[in-house]
Amino acid sequence: MDFEYSPKVKELQRRIGAFMEEHVYPDEGRFHQEIAANRAAGNAWVPTRVVEELKRKARAQGLWNLWLPESQYGAGLTNLEYAPLCEIMGRSHIGPEAFNCSAPDTGNMEVLVRYGTEAQKREWLAPLLEGEIRSGFAMTEPAVASSDATNIEAAIVRDGDDYVINGRKWWTSGAGDPRCRILIFMGKTDPQNPSRHNQQSMILVPMDTPGVKVLRQVPVFGYDDAPHGHSEVDFVNVRVPATNLLLGEGRGFEIAQGRLGPGRIHHCMRLIGAAERALELMCRRAISRTAFGKRLAEQGVWRERIADARMKIDQARFLVLHAAWKMDVAGNKVAQKEIAMIKVVAPNVACQVIDQAIQLFGGAGVSDDFGLGWLYANARTLRIADGPDEVHRNHIAKIELGRFLTR
Question: Which of 11, 153, 331, 350 is deepest in the core (most CB within 10 A)?
Fold first, then answer.
């Protein structure tokens, strides 16, 4: 593969980078101030003016829906072309949404593009592409080990022209946002099917459906991520039309594999961006701070750690770009080993680099003043949210061993 970016990608990198410098980074403080003011007024769970303004500016510049390969809806970029752009957006916690390129909306929109009916696309995909509403993905359950999705117990039962849904989900990211209008819900339509991977289905559940109740927002290391949130949601006798089913009964895993390949490339590239920003902060701090008679940048231990961070980030980036390239040329199924590897490597590298930045900053690093705490909380969460390291390592090992078992 050729790691050289095309002129089109280089120009988009330049434009997105300029937008981040001019608009996004300067507005990060304003974002937190607005959330704090809303919280003081009694409700932090309202959309922020600053992000809505950023969205209008990005869209006016044509920097919108860049994540979607199909040119009918998006910019027509491949996974490899989008990856370095996603990295730039990931340098800021408010960056991805400004370009309508944030999770879980990108994954959910991709599901609707690939598997939705024309009616489903009109009702839900269109407003998501416009950035008018947001969405959530309801899969993980508190009562079972959801790293093995065959364990999920939520029920989707056919009743005439409807399906009736019962179950409890959590880590339904985005469900705390009042703009969240639709959930993609994964549950079992055929729990007795002898194939454990054909028991599950996915179905569209509007947030305002009777029986859908948000119980709480689950904090991440103390962060509630308002107004986005990570919700625990109860579904009690939730009735939706049978036409809300996606693709067909028993095809939930098929949809999940189609959704989570590109979606996790996005997560990994955003993590590379977060690690790059942490390294940048580390270098600037090392140059500007003096301890024990000389600048931190002149002390061997910090030079070693900065060098290690540079190498780790570049190694992770090349691994992610290779996975993106293989997805483009061979498909997600063929690239499953490469996708699994980046799911382990990218969040671990981000955690390590951000942790070293926190260490260099000392007390300031664990405060909210420089954003390193939030960066670490997000990176550490993705070592679980994108599937535990142990699951991916097991999958990688099985593929690797399979090369020899068949000889």
Answer: 350
